[in-house]
Design brief:
The chain is an alpha/beta fold. It is about 30% helix and about 25% strand. The strands form three sheets. The protein has a seven-stranded mixed beta sheet with strand order 5-4-1-6-8-7-9, sandwiched between helices. A two-stranded antiparallel ribbon has the order 2-3. Strand 7 and strand 8 form a beta hairpin. The chain starts with 6 loop residues before the first strand and ends with a helix.
Length: about 210
């Protein structure tokens, strides 16, 4: 499944990774390659272009060959700051893309039809936001965002808004429901994210199931 419009992908890597001991969680190795590589391989084929949203020295990501855009909001303003950075990058580099899609860089199993199903959830409404949901839980870091809402988001962040749902509640927002995923004998929420060393070990076990089936 592919979305019928050009959509720019924004990989969000701006978190502090406290439970992983700090540093860049997305550089942790899983099944022989960095988490970030798994995410690029999942989202890249679904989008017209990819950009990495991260702060600090860009050289640490140079091996991935992606453009990088930093938050324009000072401090750790959360995912909305990454969405705004993605809007700005898309306007300058993919001006024919009316939407961006965001994905967390610590989530190696998210669906390969993420973008198409988020797009379908908008039911042709523009500007409408679509967020991913699975097993009764909303995943607001995985969303489809209309570039037309960039100015409104900028104003909201300047006014102190930080929680994703506080901002999305002001706009048409829909959800796309995703089923649990089956990897061999392992059943997993497709938006399972690696927050701790134990999570990383669990993800390794899931990949072992994939390899043996």
């Amino acid at each position: 499944m592919t979305a019928p419009e050009k959509i720019a992908g924004v990989l969000l890597a701006g978190g502090r990774s406290r439970r992983m001991g700090g540093g860049d969680k997305c550089l942790a190795e899983l099944a022989g390659k960095p988490l970030l590589t798994h995410v690029i391989e999942r989202l890249g084929p679904q989008t017209a272009a990819l950009v990495l949203n991260a702060n600090g020295d860009p050289d640490r990501f140079s091996a991935f060959g992606l453009p990088m855009v930093a938050d324009t909001v000072e401090g750790f303003a959360g995912p909305l700051a990454g969405v705004l950075a993605g809007f700005t990058w898309a306007k300058n580099h993919t001006p024919d893309a009316r939407w961006i899609v965001t994905a967390a860089t610590d989530t190696p199993f998210f669906p390969d039809d993420l973008v198409a199903r988020l797009f379908d959830a908008t039911k042709g409404q523009y500007p409408a936001i679509a967020l991913a949901q699975s097993d009764g839980r909303l995943h607001p870091v995985f969303g489809l965002w209309p570039v037309a809402l960039g100015d409104d988001l900028s104003e909201a962040l300047t006014s102190g808004t930080r929680k994703v749902l506080h901002w999305t509640g002001r706009h048409i927002t829909t959800t796309a429901e995703f089923p649990l995923a089956q990897f061999g004998d392992a059943t997993l929420d497709p938006f399972f994210n690696v927050n701790s060393p134990d999570d990383l070990a669990h993800a390794e076990a899931v990949f072992a199931e994939i390899i043996t089936t």
